[in-house]
Amino acid sequence: MPENQNTRQAGTSVSSPQPEQRYTPSEIELRWQARWDADASLYAAEGHDSGKPKYYCLEMLPYPSGALHMGHVRNYAIGDALARHMWMRGYNVLHPMGWDAFGLPAENAALKNGVPPREWTLGNVAAMKKQMRRMGFSYDWSTEVTTCLPDYYRWNQWFFLKMFEKGLAFRKKSKVNWCPECQTVLANEQVIGGRCWRHEDTVVEQRDLTQWFLRITKYADELLEGLDKLEGWPEKVRTMQRNWIGRSEGALVDFAVEGAVDGEADPSASLRDDNKKNCDDNKKSGTATKDRSDGVITVFTTRVDTIFGATSVQLAPEHPVAKAFALEDDALRVKIEGLLAEQQKARESDALGAIEKHGVDTGRFAVNPFNGERVPIWVANYILADYGTGAIMSVPAHDERDFEFAQKYGLPIRVVVAPNPDSYHIILPYADETESVLVDSGEWSGLSCVEAQEKMAAFAKDKGFGTPTVTYRLKDWGVSRQRYWGTPIPMVYCDKCSPDEPMPVAESELPILLPEQIDITQTNGSPLGRVAEFVNTICPKCGGPARRETDTMDTFVDSSWYFYRYTDAKNAKAPFDSDKANYWFPIDQYIGGVEHAILHLIYSRFWTKVMRDLGLIKNDEPAERLFTQGMVIKDGAKMSKSKGNVVSPDEMIARYGADATRMYALFAAPPDRDLEWQEEGVAGISRFLARVHRLVTKYADAASSSDAASTPKDQVLLRRLHQTIAKITQDFDGRWHFNTSISSIMILVNEIAANETSMDSGEISSAAIAEVFRGLILLLAPFAPYFAAEMWEQIGGEGVVFRTPWPAVNEELAREDEVEIPVQVNGKLVNVVKVPADSDDSVVKAAALADEKVKVRIEGKTVVKVIVVPGKLVNLVVK
Questions:
Q1: Which helix or strand (DSSP H or E) is residue 376 part of?
Q2: Maximum CA pair distance of the chain?
Q3: By CB count within 10 A, which of 68, 660, 790, 814 is most buried?
Q4: Residue 511 and residue 150: Cα distance in Å, rounded?
Q5: How far, in Å, CA of 227 to CA of 416, rounded?
Q6: Whole-number Å distance between alpha carbons of 661 and 282
Q7: What is the pLDDT of residues 807-818, one digit of tens each?
Q8: Mean pLDDT of all residues belonging to the chain
């Protein structure tokens, strides 16, 4: 540390100023990186008994693709600045990092480059970790997690066994999403606009396969209700999850299917005329006519109160009843196949919501169980097999889609909900359930919609043709993947004991290791199925020969609980120690992209609730607060390898240094907004740091002074310093406007530079210089840690700069005595006036009207109105 050889008294000039030293970021940063890398405890969290409040700061772990780009840097720079700030605020901080290391990209890269996935992945981990160290990120590497290593994925297998015991992991045959490019099944959440989440141009197919599922639907209500408690999460994320869970209260109602009726070429006419007597005879009993029934169509409706307005039943092209009809009628089969093709094409173009509605009349009828009325059965291209029951009752008077369909095909439109019993002539979709009543609805006519819904659902249940129910858009999580690079599912099959039903392996056998050297070039079926030494095993029940499950787990299993492992990363006896997890959880601040709002975040919330129910943790939610940063944009598109617009941080570091690179990522835009990449901005930050470097090295001796004297001009700098401290402290405590935080530091530096003459002459005391420069460096520490460490040492600061207490605000100094208010005339700026900071509108108005430049501008004119925006501006409207 430099000695203080130039301590001076107030009123004396700076003698023998330090020779100017050139700012060389590479030299400074590499020297400090070596020091930090040598001290493993530097970023380590303290124990539970530290006596400090805890703070768990976490950025979402990356997939090890081989290199960081500026999108990564922005995310990690936000978390790093926060972690360093919280250390300085006296918190016990956990700030870990790991690798989401399983998944298809590594397997596909291995196929392309001829390198085994494990070798490829771990090589990428090493490369990215080196980049992170060079950026100076404050991660505690002793807690590092790599999900493709057995010490981690054995606990994926352990959790799977526990879920199997609880009935949460199960196997069934169902229609699944198949990506022909990935050659594997996808969860519903991994299908975006009918396409694979990894391949935007690949249309997802529907296949019938036997797969493993996790029963996330058991927690559907809790996942939904928990969103109301997550006040620290962005509302857009909570809304996305609410919509994805998609809870709907309603009723299931059975419509009995009748056989075809000869000679009825116009089912709609039959509905309008021939069935009237049949309707009158049956609606009293509330039972369906079933003597000609050959099946049942169950519909789900949220508006059972409108069922008397149902004038058709419509099926998805893949509905079992539609398929049954098609088997009996080749002409009908061709038409239904055409509807299915239209639906699939709309999925491919992500235009299903705007599909032109087409339908086919099957010539068959179903019976409305509430009134016995026969309604025609149609197959429609806009009805989805995997939504609800794949069948709807069409009520065209009170649903826009149904109205459009009925108009197109001449189906009846019957109003059964109206503002009042005497006014229901409107033939437009209108079914406001809060202010309407039922009309022409039998014994329920006159009831409010809400009351009718409850009573009619109960009636259906009592009569045996329906039941009140709740449905969800959320489906059970399909976790089977027919690929190699994932966690083996710890189940076996024995032809003797259980040829079709799987059996769990013993926990003592875990981990079931993934073979390292296998052929993954073939794409027909799971690669593990071709490895005899993996497949062939011993039955845990009879000891005879058995077969292992050859599917692997979805990679989102790995990322659903990794942040718990960080709290106890080396534990070989359990996934983590519960006491440690309960100390650190919930995560105080989680940071990542909004693109994970459904896939990762809803799975991690589910996993947290399962672990709670297993007795491992006490918290209900993984993270108390969530921040979703904006994207980094270059050439008009999100920065990504696939678009070829990636900027390497290595190049930026080589030219401008790591501090300038990360500081620009925080300065160029608010963290929650998209950032348009401009290299010149990094260069500008580098020039700013060079300016600070010049000032600090020039006044290093004075800045290390303990002189307590004061001069009249000290207030100029000290006021700006404490205003800056207050602003940046508020930014960290509030909305994280780090861009304005850095702007405030720049203003402070401008003030310092403007007062160099006064500092040189002694008009500003050493005490003030010392306080200002110490404060400046501490304020820079979260944003430019290498630079701050070097400057802290230059001025003789003690200890580690980012473990030094955050500077306290002197409220009296920070308070503005005067504020500047722009004055406009008819919206054009004329001048800026100064008024006392606590001035009311009348004082501001008087100051504006008294200003000489304003007087000149409005001379001879009439002031029509004076608009005062408190603290912002005054606008005079004149004629």
A1: strand 374-380
A2: 114
A3: 660
A4: 6
A5: 36
A6: 77
A7: 999 988 887 767
A8: 88
